[in-house]
Design goal:
Length: 344
Amino acid sequence: MKKIMIAAAAALMAFALSACTITPKEKTTAAAETTQKGGSRETTADKKPATEAPVTEAPTTAPPTTPAPTTAAAPVKEAYQVGDTVTAKNVTLVYVASGEYESDNQFIQPADGNKYIFLEFYAEYNGKGSTSISSFDFEGYADGYAVDKKYSFDDELSGTLSAGRWNLGRIYFEVPQNAQEIEAEYKENLFSDKVIKFLYEGPQESGFVPEKKTEPTEGAMVPGDAAETKSFKIAYLSCGEAVSDNQFIQPADGSLFVYFELEFENISSKEQSVSSLLFNCYADGRHCDSHLMVRDDDLSATLSAGRKTKGTVVFEVPADAAVIELEYETSLVSGDILTFRYAP
Protein backbone atom coordinates (compact mmCIF):
# COMPACT_ATOMS: atom_id res chain seq x y z
CA MET A 1 0.00 0.00 0.00
CA LYS A 2 2.81 2.35 0.85
CA LYS A 3 4.49 1.59 -2.49
CA ILE A 4 1.26 2.39 -4.36
CA MET A 5 0.94 5.77 -2.65
CA ILE A 6 4.60 6.59 -3.42
CA ALA A 7 4.06 5.69 -7.13
CA ALA A 8 0.92 7.82 -7.34
CA ALA A 9 2.70 10.77 -5.75
CA ALA A 10 5.58 10.41 -8.24
CA ALA A 11 3.13 10.38 -11.17
CA LEU A 12 1.40 13.52 -9.93
CA MET A 13 4.76 15.27 -9.52
CA ALA A 14 5.82 14.35 -13.09
CA PHE A 15 2.56 15.65 -14.53
CA ALA A 16 2.95 18.96 -12.65
CA LEU A 17 6.50 19.42 -13.90
CA SER A 18 5.45 18.80 -17.53
CA ALA A 19 2.63 21.34 -17.22
CA CYS A 20 5.06 23.97 -15.98
CA THR A 21 7.43 23.52 -18.98
CA ILE A 22 4.72 23.88 -21.69
CA THR A 23 3.46 27.42 -22.49
CA PRO A 24 -0.06 28.04 -23.84
CA LYS A 25 1.37 28.74 -27.32
CA GLU A 26 3.34 25.51 -27.24
CA LYS A 27 0.18 23.68 -26.17
CA THR A 28 -1.50 24.97 -29.37
CA THR A 29 1.46 23.86 -31.41
CA ALA A 30 1.47 20.48 -29.84
CA ALA A 31 -2.22 20.08 -30.52
CA ALA A 32 -1.96 21.22 -34.12
CA GLU A 33 -2.87 18.81 -36.85
CA THR A 34 -0.27 17.71 -39.32
CA THR A 35 -1.10 18.02 -43.05
CA GLN A 36 0.68 17.22 -46.29
CA LYS A 37 1.11 20.11 -48.79
CA GLY A 38 3.19 20.61 -51.91
CA GLY A 39 5.32 17.58 -51.28
CA SER A 40 6.34 18.73 -47.73
CA ARG A 41 4.80 18.31 -44.34
CA GLU A 42 2.98 21.32 -42.86
CA THR A 43 1.14 21.75 -39.61
CA THR A 44 -1.77 24.04 -38.89
CA ALA A 45 0.47 25.73 -36.36
CA ASP A 46 2.53 27.09 -39.27
CA LYS A 47 -0.53 29.03 -40.46
CA LYS A 48 -0.58 32.30 -38.53
CA PRO A 49 -3.90 33.90 -37.64
CA ALA A 50 -5.11 36.58 -40.09
CA THR A 51 -4.70 39.23 -37.44
CA GLU A 52 -1.03 38.38 -37.17
CA ALA A 53 -0.29 38.39 -40.97
CA PRO A 54 2.64 40.64 -41.84
CA VAL A 55 1.64 43.96 -43.43
CA THR A 56 3.34 44.74 -46.75
CA GLU A 57 4.10 48.42 -47.19
CA ALA A 58 2.72 50.04 -50.36
CA PRO A 59 5.36 50.96 -52.93
CA THR A 60 6.39 54.58 -52.85
CA THR A 61 5.72 54.95 -56.60
CA ALA A 62 2.23 54.15 -57.92
CA PRO A 63 2.13 51.68 -60.82
CA PRO A 64 1.60 53.26 -64.26
CA THR A 65 -1.99 53.57 -65.46
CA THR A 66 -3.56 54.26 -68.85
CA PRO A 67 -5.14 57.72 -68.83
CA ALA A 68 -8.87 57.84 -69.49
CA PRO A 69 -9.83 59.01 -72.98
CA THR A 70 -10.85 62.63 -73.20
CA THR A 71 -13.43 64.28 -75.41
CA ALA A 72 -12.23 67.80 -74.72
CA ALA A 73 -11.86 69.84 -77.90
CA ALA A 74 -8.44 71.08 -78.95
CA PRO A 75 -7.71 74.66 -77.91
CA VAL A 76 -9.12 77.19 -80.35
CA LYS A 77 -7.06 80.20 -81.32
CA GLU A 78 -8.41 83.67 -80.77
CA ALA A 79 -7.23 84.61 -84.28
CA TYR A 80 -5.61 82.54 -87.04
CA GLN A 81 -2.62 83.42 -89.20
CA VAL A 82 -1.34 82.36 -92.62
CA GLY A 83 -0.51 78.63 -92.49
CA ASP A 84 -3.11 77.80 -89.84
CA THR A 85 -5.92 75.25 -90.26
CA VAL A 86 -9.31 75.33 -88.56
CA THR A 87 -12.44 73.17 -88.93
CA ALA A 88 -15.94 74.53 -88.43
CA LYS A 89 -19.20 72.67 -89.11
CA ASN A 90 -17.56 70.03 -91.34
CA VAL A 91 -15.68 72.66 -93.36
CA THR A 92 -11.89 72.63 -93.07
CA LEU A 93 -10.26 75.97 -93.84
CA VAL A 94 -6.55 76.43 -94.50
CA TYR A 95 -5.34 80.04 -94.48
CA VAL A 96 -3.05 79.73 -97.50
CA ALA A 97 -1.81 83.25 -98.29
CA SER A 98 -2.47 86.97 -98.05
CA GLY A 99 -1.34 90.10 -99.87
CA GLU A 100 -2.25 93.26 -101.74
CA TYR A 101 -4.16 93.22 -105.00
CA GLU A 102 -3.87 95.63 -107.93
CA SER A 103 -6.78 95.77 -110.36
CA ASP A 104 -5.97 96.07 -114.06
CA ASN A 105 -9.43 97.54 -114.66
CA GLN A 106 -9.24 101.33 -114.73
CA PHE A 107 -12.87 101.54 -113.66
CA ILE A 108 -12.37 99.35 -110.59
CA GLN A 109 -9.84 101.07 -108.35
CA PRO A 110 -9.69 101.76 -104.59
CA ALA A 111 -10.62 105.17 -103.25
CA ASP A 112 -7.85 107.63 -102.46
CA GLY A 113 -6.02 106.53 -99.33
CA ASN A 114 -7.26 102.94 -99.68
CA LYS A 115 -5.92 99.68 -101.12
CA TYR A 116 -7.21 96.25 -102.07
CA ILE A 117 -6.09 93.21 -100.08
CA PHE A 118 -6.86 89.49 -100.34
CA LEU A 119 -6.91 86.47 -98.04
CA GLU A 120 -6.61 83.11 -99.79
CA PHE A 121 -8.23 79.95 -98.39
CA TYR A 122 -8.44 76.25 -99.10
CA ALA A 123 -11.87 74.89 -98.16
CA GLU A 124 -12.87 71.21 -97.98
CA TYR A 125 -16.24 69.79 -96.94
CA ASN A 126 -16.65 66.46 -95.13
CA GLY A 127 -20.29 66.42 -94.11
CA LYS A 128 -23.56 65.07 -95.45
CA GLY A 129 -25.04 66.27 -98.73
CA SER A 130 -23.42 69.55 -99.78
CA THR A 131 -22.66 73.02 -98.51
CA SER A 132 -21.81 76.37 -100.06
CA ILE A 133 -18.87 78.57 -99.18
CA SER A 134 -18.18 82.03 -100.57
CA SER A 135 -17.01 85.55 -99.87
CA PHE A 136 -20.45 86.23 -98.42
CA ASP A 137 -19.46 84.10 -95.41
CA PHE A 138 -16.72 86.59 -94.46
CA GLU A 139 -16.69 90.12 -93.08
CA GLY A 140 -13.67 92.43 -92.93
CA TYR A 141 -12.59 95.00 -90.33
CA ALA A 142 -9.79 97.58 -90.28
CA ASP A 143 -8.96 98.99 -86.85
CA GLY A 144 -12.37 97.80 -85.70
CA TYR A 145 -14.36 99.40 -88.54
CA ALA A 146 -16.22 97.36 -91.16
CA VAL A 147 -14.77 97.51 -94.67
CA ASP A 148 -16.21 96.70 -98.10
CA LYS A 149 -15.84 93.32 -99.81
CA LYS A 150 -15.04 93.13 -103.52
CA TYR A 151 -16.52 90.40 -105.72
CA SER A 152 -15.32 91.04 -109.28
CA PHE A 153 -11.69 89.94 -109.04
CA ASP A 154 -9.95 86.75 -110.15
CA ASP A 155 -10.02 83.44 -108.26
CA GLU A 156 -12.78 84.46 -105.88
CA LEU A 157 -13.67 81.88 -103.23
CA SER A 158 -17.10 80.60 -104.21
CA GLY A 159 -18.67 77.19 -104.74
CA THR A 160 -20.84 74.33 -103.58
CA LEU A 161 -18.96 71.40 -102.11
CA SER A 162 -20.08 67.83 -101.46
CA ALA A 163 -18.24 65.41 -99.19
CA GLY A 164 -14.52 65.28 -100.01
CA ARG A 165 -14.69 68.10 -102.56
CA TRP A 166 -12.60 71.24 -102.22
CA ASN A 167 -11.94 74.70 -103.57
CA LEU A 168 -9.17 77.26 -103.43
CA GLY A 169 -9.94 80.95 -103.69
CA ARG A 170 -9.65 84.47 -102.35
CA ILE A 171 -11.74 87.03 -100.55
CA TYR A 172 -11.03 90.69 -101.25
CA PHE A 173 -11.44 93.83 -99.14
CA GLU A 174 -10.85 97.54 -99.61
CA VAL A 175 -9.05 98.92 -96.56
CA PRO A 176 -7.28 102.16 -95.53
CA GLN A 177 -3.62 102.15 -96.46
CA ASN A 178 -2.62 103.16 -92.94
CA ALA A 179 -4.77 100.55 -91.13
CA GLN A 180 -2.91 99.02 -88.19
CA GLU A 181 -5.06 95.95 -87.52
CA ILE A 182 -6.99 94.15 -90.27
CA GLU A 183 -9.12 91.07 -89.59
CA ALA A 184 -11.54 88.86 -91.49
CA GLU A 185 -14.30 87.01 -89.68
CA TYR A 186 -15.87 83.78 -90.93
CA LYS A 187 -19.34 82.99 -89.64
CA GLU A 188 -19.99 79.28 -89.24
CA ASN A 189 -23.70 79.44 -90.07
CA LEU A 190 -26.73 81.73 -90.11
CA PHE A 191 -28.04 80.35 -86.83
CA SER A 192 -24.95 80.99 -84.74
CA ASP A 193 -23.15 84.13 -83.58
CA LYS A 194 -19.84 82.28 -83.45
CA VAL A 195 -17.15 83.66 -85.75
CA ILE A 196 -13.59 82.62 -86.57
CA LYS A 197 -11.03 85.41 -86.91
CA PHE A 198 -8.18 85.56 -89.42
CA LEU A 199 -5.42 88.18 -89.18
CA TYR A 200 -4.15 90.05 -92.20
CA GLU A 201 -0.43 90.71 -91.65
CA GLY A 202 0.70 91.80 -95.09
CA PRO A 203 1.97 89.67 -98.00
CA GLN A 204 2.59 86.11 -96.78
CA GLU A 205 2.74 82.61 -98.28
CA SER A 206 2.23 79.33 -96.41
CA GLY A 207 3.54 77.02 -99.14
CA PHE A 208 0.40 74.87 -98.85
CA VAL A 209 -0.39 72.84 -101.99
CA PRO A 210 -3.83 71.13 -102.23
CA GLU A 211 -3.84 67.40 -102.85
CA LYS A 212 -5.60 66.42 -106.08
CA LYS A 213 -8.19 63.67 -105.73
CA THR A 214 -7.92 61.52 -108.81
CA GLU A 215 -9.92 58.45 -107.77
CA PRO A 216 -13.23 58.32 -109.70
CA THR A 217 -16.42 57.99 -107.69
CA GLU A 218 -17.57 54.39 -107.41
CA GLY A 219 -20.79 53.82 -109.37
CA ALA A 220 -20.58 57.12 -111.26
CA MET A 221 -22.77 57.17 -114.38
CA VAL A 222 -21.26 57.21 -117.87
CA PRO A 223 -22.91 58.09 -121.21
CA GLY A 224 -25.71 55.63 -121.91
CA ASP A 225 -26.64 55.14 -118.25
CA ALA A 226 -29.97 56.12 -116.69
CA ALA A 227 -31.24 56.55 -113.15
CA GLU A 228 -34.47 57.40 -111.36
CA THR A 229 -35.19 59.71 -108.45
CA LYS A 230 -38.46 60.35 -106.70
CA SER A 231 -39.37 62.95 -109.33
CA PHE A 232 -37.30 62.25 -112.45
CA LYS A 233 -35.97 59.63 -114.80
CA ILE A 234 -32.55 60.92 -115.83
CA ALA A 235 -30.64 59.72 -118.89
CA TYR A 236 -26.96 60.55 -119.46
CA LEU A 237 -26.79 61.09 -123.22
CA SER A 238 -23.27 62.33 -124.02
CA CYS A 239 -20.34 64.57 -123.03
CA GLY A 240 -17.43 66.29 -124.73
CA GLU A 241 -15.48 69.49 -125.21
CA ALA A 242 -17.57 72.62 -125.72
CA VAL A 243 -16.28 75.24 -128.15
CA SER A 244 -17.42 78.85 -127.82
CA ASP A 245 -17.86 81.01 -130.91
CA ASN A 246 -17.93 84.13 -128.75
CA GLN A 247 -14.51 85.76 -128.58
CA PHE A 248 -15.36 87.25 -125.20
CA ILE A 249 -16.31 83.88 -123.68
CA GLN A 250 -13.24 81.70 -123.84
CA PRO A 251 -11.53 79.40 -121.30
CA ALA A 252 -8.43 80.63 -119.49
CA ASP A 253 -5.02 79.41 -120.56
CA GLY A 254 -4.58 75.79 -119.58
CA SER A 255 -8.35 75.22 -119.31
CA LEU A 256 -11.19 74.10 -121.58
CA PHE A 257 -14.97 74.01 -121.63
CA VAL A 258 -16.71 70.64 -121.26
CA TYR A 259 -20.40 69.77 -121.57
CA PHE A 260 -22.66 67.05 -120.20
CA GLU A 261 -25.87 66.29 -122.14
CA LEU A 262 -28.78 64.99 -120.05
CA GLU A 263 -32.46 64.15 -120.47
CA PHE A 264 -35.01 64.61 -117.66
CA GLU A 265 -38.48 63.07 -117.58
CA ASN A 266 -40.96 64.04 -114.88
CA ILE A 267 -42.26 60.76 -113.46
CA SER A 268 -44.11 62.36 -110.55
CA SER A 269 -47.72 63.56 -110.49
CA LYS A 270 -46.70 67.18 -109.83
CA GLU A 271 -44.97 69.89 -111.81
CA GLN A 272 -41.19 69.78 -111.48
CA SER A 273 -38.35 72.15 -112.46
CA VAL A 274 -34.83 71.41 -113.57
CA SER A 275 -31.97 73.87 -114.10
CA SER A 276 -28.28 73.79 -114.93
CA LEU A 277 -27.77 75.88 -111.78
CA LEU A 278 -28.54 72.76 -109.72
CA PHE A 279 -25.39 70.99 -110.98
CA ASN A 280 -21.80 71.15 -109.72
CA CYS A 281 -18.65 70.00 -111.47
CA TYR A 282 -15.33 68.94 -109.96
CA ALA A 283 -11.95 68.36 -111.60
CA ASP A 284 -9.66 66.17 -109.46
CA GLY A 285 -11.90 67.10 -106.55
CA ARG A 286 -11.78 70.88 -107.06
CA HIS A 287 -14.90 72.92 -107.71
CA CYS A 288 -15.20 74.24 -111.29
CA ASP A 289 -17.02 77.32 -112.59
CA SER A 290 -20.15 76.91 -114.73
CA HIS A 291 -20.75 78.76 -117.99
CA LEU A 292 -24.28 79.31 -119.25
CA MET A 293 -23.61 81.06 -122.57
CA VAL A 294 -21.12 78.76 -124.26
CA ARG A 295 -23.88 76.70 -125.94
CA ASP A 296 -27.47 77.53 -126.80
CA ASP A 297 -29.03 74.32 -125.45
CA ASP A 298 -28.83 75.05 -121.72
CA LEU A 299 -30.67 72.52 -119.55
CA SER A 300 -33.52 74.47 -117.97
CA ALA A 301 -37.26 73.75 -117.96
CA THR A 302 -40.44 73.40 -115.94
CA LEU A 303 -42.15 70.07 -116.62
CA SER A 304 -45.68 68.94 -115.97
CA ALA A 305 -46.30 65.26 -115.18
CA GLY A 306 -44.95 62.96 -117.92
CA ARG A 307 -43.08 65.71 -119.82
CA LYS A 308 -39.41 65.63 -120.86
CA THR A 309 -36.55 67.99 -121.59
CA LYS A 310 -32.94 67.60 -122.62
CA GLY A 311 -30.01 69.98 -122.73
CA THR A 312 -26.45 70.57 -121.59
CA VAL A 313 -24.55 71.96 -118.66
CA VAL A 314 -21.11 73.49 -119.32
CA PHE A 315 -18.13 73.98 -117.02
CA GLU A 316 -14.57 75.27 -117.30
CA VAL A 317 -12.01 72.67 -116.19
CA PRO A 318 -8.21 72.30 -116.22
CA ALA A 319 -7.08 70.72 -119.47
CA ASP A 320 -4.87 68.24 -117.60
CA ALA A 321 -7.52 67.08 -115.10
CA ALA A 322 -7.47 63.31 -114.54
CA VAL A 323 -11.04 62.92 -113.27
CA ILE A 324 -13.93 65.26 -114.13
CA GLU A 325 -17.30 64.58 -112.50
CA LEU A 326 -20.69 66.26 -112.53
CA GLU A 327 -22.99 66.06 -109.49
CA TYR A 328 -26.73 66.52 -109.09
CA GLU A 329 -28.20 66.54 -105.57
CA THR A 330 -31.48 64.66 -105.81
CA SER A 331 -32.73 65.56 -102.33
CA LEU A 332 -31.80 68.36 -99.97
CA VAL A 333 -33.27 66.33 -97.10
CA SER A 334 -31.39 63.06 -97.62
CA GLY A 335 -28.33 64.59 -99.28
CA ASP A 336 -28.38 61.91 -102.00
CA ILE A 337 -26.26 62.75 -105.04
CA LEU A 338 -26.07 61.41 -108.60
CA THR A 339 -22.58 61.53 -110.13
CA PHE A 340 -21.83 61.66 -113.88
CA ARG A 341 -18.27 60.92 -114.98
CA TYR A 342 -16.81 62.80 -117.93
CA ALA A 343 -15.96 60.03 -120.40
CA PRO A 344 -16.07 61.37 -123.97
